[in-house]
């Protein structure tokens, strides 16, 4: 039995199909959902048995099956065809349609694809999906089990559909590339921060296990020598030993401070909110108000926000002349916000162009704050005027997974 054409001889029916295709192209930014929706519309409207939508890879050297009607939708993403291989590759390379109504194996361009069971289908039409602004986006194939006579009008209709789909597929491919780049940038930032923190931990361990331990041992020996020295004959030696002991203790304190700066243990022990509370309460002669949500965040975000708070609070001590500092930490399903406000002397941010270039001048040193925020995809806003204090607000994205229940900590 032979059937003729796509069954779209009625212009009204043809317009309905084209409108359905346009609606399918709005199914979302993803390449695969779009291609799958188009394949279903085509088979439903043309009474063909199966439709394959092959999309040009980003390398533009091969095609990938991006959409198919059941049962072949399970092969989406798995079937790849080099350009100029098989009928589909030939259509992509030559930008011309191909119609086969009988024995496909007799066509020298035909190459069997085992996953798509081409031997089960008798007739096929393959057209390039391309449009003037974007060029080739892929190849559209329809197949029928029964013998089907496809005429020039059928080819023109399918080519028009391919042209409509090409623009949407191009946009979807661009969206995918942008999303991949953003994801790669985010992973790079996380890996860089993780590498920095790993190096900080290594240095902290080296200082603790090496320099600090030797200083402690040296202090014990100095104390022992001082005990055995007589009071009269070795007064000068005792004075030198006391000075040496004092220097050892000072150096030991500095080593411990360096360890804390390299990797604050409080961040591991208490999380970000606890670490911020300890950091703020350690400010000398400054009243502290805390409003901190106690939620764990990704490690690279916690480290960045802790370093930002550390830098900002040091700037408050150096430059603000503040009597009170407020630290707030709030989180949502996809973002975190850190706000540090003081009632100090303030400044005009517009005049701090030197700070943006990486020099602190006489005001807040915000260059490193901005750099740390940008590394985790965040941003910094500074609000200040002379005589009105300063507020530094940092926002950063976090994973889209929901957080645990909020446990606010207020002081």
Automatic annotation (TrEMBL):
Protein's recorded name: Oxygen sensor histidine kinase NreB
Domain Histidine kinase: 305-400
SUPFAM superfamilies reported in the protein's UniProt record: ATPase domain of HSP90 chaperone/DNA topoisomerase II/histidine kinase, GAF domain-like
Reactions that this protein is recorded to catalyse: ATP + protein L-histidine = ADP + protein N-phospho-L-histidine
Organism: Actinomycetospora chibensis
Annotated keywords: 4Fe-4S, ATP-binding, Cytoplasm, Iron, Iron-sulfur, Kinase, Metal-binding, Nucleotide-binding, Phosphoprotein, Transferase, Two-component regulatory system
Lineage per the UniProt record: Bacteria, Bacillati, Actinomycetota, Actinomycetes, Pseudonocardiales
EC number: 2.7.13.3
Cellular compartment(s): Cytoplasm
């Amino acid at each position: 039995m032979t059937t003729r054409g796509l069954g779209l001889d009625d212009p009204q029916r043809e317009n309905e199909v084209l409108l359905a295709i346009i609606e399918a192209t709005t199914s979302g930014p993803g390449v695969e959902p779009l291609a799958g929706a188009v394949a279903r519309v085509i088979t439903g409207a043309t009474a063909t048995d199966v439709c394959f939508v092959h999309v040009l890879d980003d390398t533009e050297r091969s095609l990938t099956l991006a959409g198919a009607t059941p049962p072949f939708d399970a092969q989406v993403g798995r079937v790849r065809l080099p350009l100029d291989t098989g009928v589909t590759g030939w259509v992509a390379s030559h930008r011309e349609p191909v119609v086969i109504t009988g024995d496909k194996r007799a066509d020298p361009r035909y190459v069997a694809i085992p996953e798509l069971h081409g031997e089960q289908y008798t007739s096929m039409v393959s057209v390039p999906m391309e449009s003037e602004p974007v060029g080739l986006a892929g190849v559209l194939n329809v197949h029928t089990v029964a013998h089907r006579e496809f005429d020039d009008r059928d080819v023109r209709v399918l080519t028009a559909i391919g042209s409509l789909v090409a623009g949407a597929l191009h946009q979807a491919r661009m969206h995918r590339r942008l999303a991949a780049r953003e994801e790669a940038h985010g992973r790079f930032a996380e890996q860089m921060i993780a590498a920095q923190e790993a190096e900080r931990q290594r240095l902290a361990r080296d200082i603790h296990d090496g320099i600090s331990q030797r200083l402690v041992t040296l202090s014990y020996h100095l104390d022992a020598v001082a005990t055995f020295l007589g009071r009269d004959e070795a007064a000068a030696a005792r004075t030198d030993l006391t000075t040496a002991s004092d220097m050892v203790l000072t150096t030991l304190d500095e080593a411990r401070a360096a360890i804390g700066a390299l990797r604050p243990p409080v961040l591991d022990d208490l999380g970000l909110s606890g670490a911020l509370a300890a950091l703020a309460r350690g400010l000398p002669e400054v009243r502290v108000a805390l409003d901190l949500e106690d939620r764990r965040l990704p490690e690279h975000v916690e480290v960045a926000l802790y370093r930002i708070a550390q830098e900002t609070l040091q700037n408050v001590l150096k430059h603000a002349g503040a009597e009170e500092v407020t630290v707030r930490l709030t989180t949502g399903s996809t973002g975190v916000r850190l706000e540090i406000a003081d009632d100090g002397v303030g400044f005009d941010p517009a005049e701090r162009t030197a700070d943006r270039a990486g020099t602190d001048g006489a005001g807040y040193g915000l260059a490193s704050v901005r750099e740390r925020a940008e590394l985790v995809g965040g941003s910094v806003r500074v609000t200040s005027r002379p005589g009105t204090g300063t507020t530094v607000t940092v926002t950063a994205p976090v994973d889209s997974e929901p957080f645990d229940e909020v446990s606010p900590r207020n002081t």
